[in-house]
Amino acid sequence: MKSNIQPAEGKLGILIPGLGAVATTMIAGVEAVxxxxxxxxxxxxxxxxxxxxxxxxxxxPKIKDFVPIADFKDIxxxxxxxxxxxxxxxxxxxxxxxxxxLNAIKSELEVVVPMKAAFDQNYAKNxxxxxxxxxxxxxxxxxxxxxxxxxxxKNNCSRIxxxxxxxxxxxxxxxxxxxxxxxxxxxxxxxxxxISPSMIYAYSALKLGIPFANGAPxxxxxxxxxxxxxxxxxxxxxxxxxKTGQTLMKTILAPGLAARSLGVKGWFSTNILGNRDGLxxxxxxxxxxxxxxxxxxxxxxxxxxxxxxxxxDLYHKIRIDYYPPHGxxxxxxxxxxxxxxxGYKMQIKINFLCRDSILAAPIALDLALFSxxxxxxxxxxxxxxLSFYLKSPQTAPGLAxxxxxxxxxxxxxxxxxxxxxxxxxxxxxxxYYQDLVEAM
Length: 440
Ligand SMILES: NC(=O)c1ccc[n+]([C@@H]2O[C@H](COP(=O)([O-])OP(=O)(O)OC[C@H]3O[C@@H](n4cnc5c(N)ncnc54)[C@H](O)[C@@H]3O)[C@@H](O)[C@H]2O)c1
Description:
The chain is an alpha/beta fold. The chain has helices spanning about 20-35, 45, 65, 85-95, 100-105, 105-110, 135-155, 180-190, 195-205, 225-230, 245-260, 275-280, 285-300, 310, 355-375, 405-420, 430-440; strands spanning about 10-15, 75-80, 115, 155-165, 210-215, 235-240, 265-275, 315-320, 330-340, 345-355, 380. The chain has a seven-stranded parallel sheet with strand order 3-2-1-4-5-6-11, with helices on both faces. A four-stranded mixed sheet has the order 8-7-9-10. Strand 5, helix 10 (about 225-230) and strand 6 (about 235-240) form a beta-alpha-beta unit.
């Protein structure tokens, strides 16, 4: 398969609907790393290694030296937002990164000015939008496509990817207009309100053959019409919802409990956060979207129907409360009621003082870089190997998602090995283990 991957030549434009806390932290991070001011911690594409061949081969290159991903020097950022603030101003307001760091890269950040957004107030009621496009949904899609083409030409990019870092939209389910591309396109013309703003961006990108990854829990590309379009234009898609904070902890810890056949009776999770994301999630309709995305994780890992003695009575509760004094520094508490040998009860308490956007920024970056790689490797449709980064991974219809982070990593790494024509690693090792034992 290796010979089919197009090289990462020329500039890669990373276009982001939603230049808020996550997006500005990601952009500022890339600029800071480029200037030698910091390190891209948390980014698998930049810091991660991958084992190749047998353990005895001692081949352990960095991922970025193994697969042809875009170099930081070739990345150009752009995006849309419902506010006019440029990325420097938005990052200062988000208060994730220190002003000292932002001032050191001010000139690089100031030039990223948001284009007017495709927006519908009904999908994020707590925002007061001032930088929006006018028109029907069809006209908005045409305008977004024009924005993408103009950006590409102006910045002399050879490739573009889109990563949705916009606010979580209100909860909605797929309806008949989302089932086929023809129905969706008719609904665009009819300005049907069931087409959300994030779908307008996704449609525009896919129509142009541009990869689209979704960092929020909204359906967006997780509808049959988008899957059909992605196939038609041979475009990679991935979603939903960046896996950070509490859900990251859950998908690290729960596989460990399940691996040791320990029972879980209850898992109570509560969060407080005070950033704009928290403000949007303070609306019950928007919170519902997040809740649905977070709830599935434990069930998928524990599989209560197959393990009724261990997980049949699991009570899973999630709360998020808006608490401005904490800003982007989310605090979460988990109380986990577990039981072991002969049913004896134990408890685990987790108090995670995390920084939401510090965890999300490298994910947004990796999704952009890997989506671009997938496109150049002629991989299209749902990129399940990117589940590693996502809270509510999109899978082919009828396939249960894999939420165990260790299996997700194995899948991601094996996908990279497969792309590059390397042997897949099963960790069996028997083929050479015996030779080593006998040589001792
Ligand atoms: N921070 C995390 O750890 C994390 C984790 C998982 C998912 N997410 C999701 O990522 C998204 C971004 O999070 P954030 O903390 O940066 O939020 P944020 O509120 O700081 O940024 C979102 C930005 O999107 C803009 N926006 C809303 N609708 C838009 C539209 N239609 N077009 C263009 N811009 C639009 C808003 O004005 C805002 O500036 C949210 O959906 C959030 O739920 C974040």
